[in-house]
Amino acid sequence: MKQYIINVNKDNNGNNEIHTSDCYYKPEEKNQKELGYFNDEIEAKNFAKQNGWSNADGCFHCCRKAHTG
Ligand SMILES: [Zn+2]
After folding, report:
1. Number of domains, the chain
2. Rounded distance from Cα 25 to ligand 1 centre (Å)
3. Maximum Cα–Cα distance for the chain, whole Å?
4. 52 alpha carbon – ligand 1 mean position (Å)
5. pLDDT category, 42, cuts 50, 70, 90?
């Protein structure tokens, strides 16, 4: 399992991007909120959407299966 975090700030597309805790492209620490440990980014994204992050989207680099734009 991997640890996932979400960017509390929206990107240019209006999405809150999800990253693994070891992604090079994750936001700086003050802009991160921990989501927890999941088997993959699909699970992490589903969890985020169920917990108020309706614009959650996977990072292109570390969460490609959950990346839509
Ligand atoms: Zn990432």
Report:
1. 1
2. 5
3. 29
4. 20
5. very high
